Amino acid sequence: MYQLPAMGYEYDQLGKYISKDIMELHHSKHHQTYVDKLNAALENAPALKERPLESLLSDIDSLPEAVRTALRNNGGGHYNHSLFWKWMSPDGGGEPTGELATKIVDKYGSFQTFVDEFTTKSLGVFGSGWVWLQPDMEILTTPNQDTPIMIGKAAPLLGLDVWEHAYYLDYKNKRDDYINAWWNVVDWGFVAERFEHS
Predict the structure, then answer these.
(1) pLDDT tens digits, residue range 152-174?
(2) Domain boundary among 86, 114, 130
(3) 102 partner at 20 to 30 Å CA-CA among 22, 149, 190, 193?
């Protein structure tokens, strides 16, 4: 049975950027619901319980039709959010260093150009979805709780949740303000770890 993971910091520790109310609602309600519904779906397909979640999501189109949508939405929601909490830190912000920084600059010309392009893609997501940085430095988007591994891509280095539940209590309809604030909590150390192992 899947369980709600700990975030590694308290709900109020992202301070003025993402409020305690948002974090508590997002983690304890939204993410918990994905976990509960994922477990319920697997009860209807017990043969799939032994497979790791990444294996299920990367093979989503071949899963039994009766549970495929539930696993896509709720398995994807659990996978994405489990990473999302780690991509943020009370000590986050700033810029990456080392080889990751070099690769970003090689691809985009500067870190700020990368930030601008990632932000533009984030603002361009219609409705609910995610924006990702991939190991090859591609920026891509997916709808709903889809994740890059569902479409044959590598596991992402970084992802931003642009569902309204991620920001509406703080920022209302101003997704741009949320995105600009989010850059101040990005944990580039965790992103770099994922890059090193990609």
Answers:
(1) 999 999 999 999 999 999 999 99
(2) 86
(3) 149
Report the predicted TM-score, pTM, of the whole model to 2 decimal places. 0.97
Residue 72: the pLDDT is: 98
Count of structural domains, the chain: 2
Q: Range of 102's domain?
A: 98-196
The 3-class SS string of the chain reads: CCCCCCCCCCCCCCCCCCCHHHHHHHHHHHHHHHHHHHHHHHHCCHHHCCCCHHHHHHCHHHCCHHHHHHHHHHHHHHHHHHHHHHCECCCCCCCCCHHHHHHHHHHHCCHHHHHHHHHHHHHHCCCCEEEEECCCCCEEEEECCCCHHHHCCCCCCEEEECCHHHCHHHHCCCHHHHHHHHCCCECHHHHHHHHHCC
Q: Are residues 175 and 143 in the same domain?
A: yes
